[in-house]
Amino acid sequence: MTNRIKIGKTGEAIAIDFLEKSGFQLVEKNYRSGRGEIDIIAIKEGLLLFVEVKTNSSSWHGSSENKVRWYQQQKIMHTAQRYLSSCYWEGQIRFDVVIVYLNGRQRIRYLPGYFG
Question: Which of 1.10.132.30, 3.40.1350.10, 1.20.1070.10, 1.10.390.10 is the CATH number of 3-115?
């Protein structure tokens, strides 16, 4: 496993812990359909979240907030449509981003409703 994959998996685990402590229930992790993937699918009070996790282990690589580009957002939304057609969800949905910073002191930035 490459260092980049390890960093990503660490970030996803931290994001899941953060969401669960915030009252969200994990539904799926690394959901794949076709060529798309959704890092986390979670639910809370009738709201289904599709969460993209970005992990930044170094401040030298620029802002993580800008790393969910339009094309990736489209892939995530398309994958979410596939998920929704298989589970018949009738509540609200939202596309969120969780940014995990591992450089120095670990911190999290949660961006609800980031796109979609």
Answer: 3.40.1350.10
